[in-house]
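User: Can you fold this complex?
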Amino acid sequence: MAVDIAVENVSARYDDSLVLNSVSFSVAAGERIGIVGRSGVGKSTLLGIISGLDEPESGRVQVGDTSDPAGRLAHCVVMPQADCLLPWRNALENAVLALENQGLSRRAARAEADALFVHLGLDGAQERTPNQLSGGMRQRVAFARTVLARKPVLLLDEPFGALDTITRYELQDWLRGYLLEAPSTVVLVTHDIEEALVLCDRVLVFSVAGSLTEIAGFGSTATPRSDLISDSAFLARRRTVLEEL
Amino acid sequence: MQPRRLITRGVAPTVLLVCVIGLWEALVKINDVPAYLFPAPTDVGHEFLHRHELLAASVVTGREIVIGYLAAVLAALGFAVAMHASKLCRQAFYPLLVVSQTVPTVLLAPILVVAFGFGLTPKLIVIALVCFFPIVVNAYDGLQSADADRVRMLMSLHGTPWLRFRKLDVPMALPAAFSGARVAATYAAVAAVFAEWTGSQAGLGFVILQAGPSLETATIVAAVLILAVMALALSGVVSALQRLLIPWSTEVRHA
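Assistant: Here's the predicted assembly.
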């Protein structure tokens, strides 16, 4: 079951400088929102705060029915920009970390992960170690690991930031397909405007001046990505985001 | 490493060693240097074959090295974990550990002999003390080395502090801990000799001490060579264990 998120007047510092100044927005259950902004506007800091891993300096964050950090963390899973795969585990063992942590048997965890590996185009790569995987595959394993935490809120921090353009497009495509079917609430931090518009229902633009603008995205549109990005409505909204930045 | 590469890599140092030994033998024989001044390799070889107390002494020293070293490993890992787990422990012990390194540990041996007598105990303590530091510092640094992203990732995957310790901190610490253990392995033999010099009736250190005044130089060289082989063997065992237990460790260093 998806849960909603409410961020109310959140302020936060990063290395002593104020990066978030009384930010407020909400995300409906099952909604996918993108957060776009230049480097240093506090996008990642915000994800940390929503997840409960960090606390804001002031303000309040509610995820589902809870606002305490442990409760928020119980609802949220974070996928950092680096794949953070553990080199001493193979792809499958990396993916089932969360299931293992919950005490699931090896066999049950493996069965669940195997199905997802097929879905993510990773079938056959289960036994490979991270250094035997391509950048795109590593990122998909990291995504599998994130999804297998079976939490209602996915917080994705620049999930494709470290990839080359072609791989990035491919992964955006399958993530789009995946998210269309998944009931998860998603907050995607990215500096790629196109990625945010293609994947999300709504895009929040953080300007350097500190203002926050909402722009509708195309995350729920069935139009294939290739057609979408040349569509005039898409291009117009892309321009709007750019102007807001 | 592949067997073939291992062989190729072994060839050059072996050839060099054979040349050095050959030159050594030739120089001693040509110049007719007496064995008590500078023994030829064949004199040392003769010692190996005929001086049977070397074997008994090697067993004594070998036992001291192995037990002392294992004690150091256990104590160091215990301390590293305690300092990692408790801030108070870290604040209390870490500075003292660093400062303690300015004390030449082997010179504590005479004091330990006074306190514990001429038995095995003071030797084990000296060896353990010498080997302890490189292991504890490296293991502790290794335990602290998990990057923030990985920690946050694990904590958001239904992680707990205990799971973090088991599944992230400990594996991350192993490469560094093994490096420390390898360095310590090379210290152990020297520490054993120093310990035996301060009071013992057996061991390679004792043999060296006895051989000095009676100018049995070849015996000293033979004992030193045995000590070198022991240090190499211990360090080799640690390296082999590292390759066996954490074959991924080279990747972590490059990551």
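Chain B has a mean pLDDT of 89. The radius of gyration of chain B is 22 Å.
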